[in-house]
Amino acid sequence: RAFLYRLWKGNASSKMLNPRLQKAMKDYLTANKHGVRFRGKRETGLSRAQLLCQLRSRAPVRTLDGTEAPFSALGWRRLVPAVPLSQLHPRGLRSCAVVMSAGSILNSSLGKEIDSHDAVLRFNSAPTRGYEKDVGNKTTIRIINSQILTNPSHHFIDSSLYKDVILVAWDPAPYSANLNLWYKKPDYNLFTPYIQHRQRNPNQPFYILHPKFIWQLWDIIQENTKEKIQPNPPSSGFIGILIMMSMCREVHVYEYIPSVRQTELCHYHELYYDAACTLGAYHPLLYEKLLVQRLNTGTQGDLHRKGKVVLPGFQTVHC
Ligand code: C5P
Questions:
Q1: Disulfide check for 229: which of 4, 248, 276, 284 has CB 3.0–4.6 Å away?
Q2: Which atom of ligand 1 is nearest to the CA of 265?
Q3: Which residues does 91 contact at the CB level (< 8 Å), separation at least 6?
């Protein structure tokens, strides 16, 4: 529990993680498989307001629009949705929920509260059926990683999880965000299933995040962290929080920073235990969480009991 108290206060460090996780983090630093070259400056003393302004100005949500090579020559301008993600709710949503898939949401009874928001964002294959009492049943947006599109076990084409929602997919690209390199060698080839899905379901809003957006987020996390963070993309959770901050006036994030229910159970819908799911090995998850903790405007009570963080939408911050 000591670690959880430090996380709630915002002064946890990787030194407090178990040796296996520390080793994994070090190995990712050595491998640097995405070729990260951090050129920014670390400035860890920013205020909440400064941090918000930094995120708003330097990490605007961006999706592939088909205007850049190689996608321009492949006809992607007509393939991507005509209405950009940022224009789907041009006047902004009032209040939004981001529901993490963490095991700690089990027995939370947060379902009603979550469904009371104007829009709800969920991740990957996280179900609602059978878990309504704890996670609710409304889904507006689903963020999916490239494995969901490519691994047959997820049934991307026919599962109801991926129907009647806004889909936002992403895949780790090189830090250079060179789209030609990425197109030739994605982590998992999401491009083929994306094209197919767009052709079959032209009316469903479905976007691929631009690698520049993802790595700009990474830069901001590193700039605001004393330690060297893993040179890998931020987790879907962090990406989803930022997408909602750009679309909503207020964002309620559930079980990202764990509540008193903290558990090593990785997902609420799967019997698999690993502390890395909550604290990170591949993703710089611990540092993402420390940053989000600094932005929290919610109460300590809600943090402890609900694992809830409340963040302002970018429209409401004055820079
Ligand atoms: O595992 P998955 O990526 O589908 O989960 C969605 C997001 O929820 C993660 O990217 C992470 O940010 C967050 N998460 C968490 N703690 C867990 C499981 C997931 O913070 N135990």
A1: 284
A2: 21
A3: none
